[in-house]
Specification:
- The chain is an alpha+beta fold and about 130 residues long.
- About 20% of the residues lie in helices and about 45% in strands.
- The chain contains two helices and seven strands; from the N terminus they run αβββββββα.
- It starts with a helix and ends with a helix.
Length: about 130
């Protein structure tokens, strides 16, 4: 898979997702060796999913290097944010972690690395189809 195919696959995932009403590509940058995509998606329940992914082509595959998936409800309240920002070194899954709507440090939990397809599956389980 090339960087271009990787980014297009992410866009296609949003296009066919039953919980995404519409989305806007905010930023898209790509070269033969890396790519960045930032997208704002409006969900059927009027919630928001902000997506930021950076991938690199290493050896013969694209690897997700940095990510942030920020899901909030229609009132702007955080539901979940998955990311791998390099803070919270005390977590066993560092740098991967999740922020929940609980707020403060209590809202930061260990998490496996996730990709856009996994996040969309989680949303599809949690948002009724319109």
């Amino acid at each position: 898979m090339t960087i271009n195919e990787y980014l297009e696959d992410g866009i296609l995932s949003l296009t066919v997702s039953p919980v995404v009403d519409r989305f806007q590509i905010i930023t898209r940058r790509e070269t033969d060796t890396d790519g960045y995509l930032r997208i704002r998606a409006i969900l059927l329940d009027k919630g928001l999913l902000e997506i930021s992914i950076y991938g690199q082509f290493i050896v013969d595959a694209v690897h997700l290097i940095d990510y942030r998936f920020h899901w909030q409800d229609k009132d702007g309240k955080l539901k979940i944010r998955w990311d791998n920002a390099r803070h919270h070194q005390e977590l066993k899954t560092f740098p991967d972690h999740v922020h929940t709507g609980e707020g403060g440090y209590e809202g930061v939990k260990e998490s496996a690395s996730v990709n856009l397809s996994e996040v969309l599956r989680t949303l599809e389980e949690g948002i009724p189809e319109g």
